[in-house]
Predict the structure.
Amino acid sequence: MKRFETIAALIVLLVLIGTPVSVFAYQAVSSSTAECQTIIMRTYENGNPTPAETRVKKGQKVCLRLTSHDVTHGFLISDLGVDAGEIHAGKWTQIEFVPQETGTFSYVCTLRCSPMHSRVRGAIVVED
Ligand SMILES: [Cu+2]
């Protein structure tokens, strides 16, 4: 009987601790995702990243998810101080930043990725 009581006490303890921890963890994850302006950008060897231009809101966190379909590219938004480093083919890189000013900010590939390297560019438009 003592063993049953111990197991029952452990289950009650797990529920008492696990429930609030789960609720707080869920709220933290869902609120950080909800506040994020998620942009998925894909890069191809022939240039023309998709989308080539994207719009975001000033002062709101941007979650930029980047991938490449061919070779390794670089990704730099110089005027926003955003450098994603190398974007490897078939893998995802996520960077986060909060644009603090409005305007059109060009991004470029920073690696000599292919003969079409100079076409791998686009713009982030930050609006009020
Ligand atoms: Cu390139």
